[in-house]
Amino acid sequence: MAEEVARPFSVLTLGAGFPPGLNTADSDTVLQPDETPDGYGYDLSKDGKLVKNTTAAGGTDRVQKTITLSTVPYLWHYGRLWNITLRTAATASNILTYGAMNYNDIYVPQKNGKVYFDEDDQTIDAIVPIGEDSLAVVKATGTYILSNLNDTRALWQRTDLIQELGTGTSATGSGRVLELDGALFASNTNGLFAYSQGRTAEITRKVRNGVTNFADKAITADYEKKRIIGKTLTVTDYIYDVEAGKLFRYNSTNFRYTTPRFHLPDWSPFYADRFYAVIEHADATDAWFVYQVRYEDGQWTDEVRVSVNYTGEMYTVVTVPLDEGMNNAAYTKFQMRITNVSSTSGTTNLYFKSFDIGLFNFDREHYKR
Known about the structure:
By secondary structure, the protein is mostly beta strands. The chain folds into two domains: 9-53 and 255-366, Jelly Rolls, CATH 2.60.120.260; 66-249, YVTN repeat-like/Quinoprotein amine dehydrogenase (Methylamine Dehydrogenase, Chain H, 7 Propeller). It is built from no helices and 29 strands. It has strands at 9-15, 21-22, 35-36, 66-69, 72-77, 80-83, 95-99, 109-116, 124-130, 134-139, 142-147, 157-158, 177-180, 183-188, 191-196, 199-202, 218-222, 227-232, 235-241, 246-249, 257-258, 271-281, 287-295, 304-308, 315-321, 334-341, 343-344, 347-348, 350-360. The strands form eight sheets. It has a five-stranded antiparallel β-sheet with strand order 4-5-6-7-8, with no helix packed on it. The protein is elongated. It starts with 8 loop residues before the first strand and ends in a 9-residue tail after the last strand. Residues 1-7 have low confidence and may be disordered.
């Protein structure tokens, strides 16, 4: 009788570096383990973990000091009075009025007291201080940067119109622009953009093929955690983590996490025998989660519920055997997703640290992502 020879077995990463940032613009076969092609509803307060939380914390509106003189509203920045009138007013203008330095109880113009932003007839929607001595002057069609504002002689520099930093025509800029860490963030119908040190970046580039959830939203900031929060009324639609460079989507009361689509470097066939979930227990009760998988470009399988018993240890490695997949045939692509997680008294009671896949007939040393 011939001796049975054990097949080589390797464990490789499906998902890690949580919470995962959303990336729908790139193919799901090229995403990194800390990205997801389809995911929403995460608790961002748990660094390094995937945690269900469909209700995201809100941010804070930007604070600007207002001084009213003879019924005229002024903003106070860099020791000067500045006057703009929102587009809804009959006197809306594309001229920014300013006063002499250190006068805050009476308006005293310096020079002619005006800066013109008249490349088009759109009115000024908002001004936002950025950096150490600059103002962003925001219109529906774009933004100007007015700098060197600490100069007592009013010898300033003014850029031309930066059109990608417009706020769109559907709403005023007052709730769609803000400053964070010296950068200006602007929300418009094309998504979320940022301006810093003379350069503009498209923050929503990774979801530019589907910006509905990210376009033309009122934005606030979590200044402590360095996050931009996009909202529709009081409902959070997305969060952008500035330091991590990740976008997170929210979708009503729903939760989902989808891994990148796994394949071998040379796209050769493989067979997935199981996957592993490294879990941290949030309390001392039993828990569960629901998953689905799919092979190649096929449909998602039926949902499967996995029980996670609490054993007194903080961490548990759950091994989930996979069925025969494509009738026990090898395949070139594999993907899984988590669609629900248990809770205790309304609070999710397990956190995911990582997901790995167990493969037969593959040498780990030849694997490079």
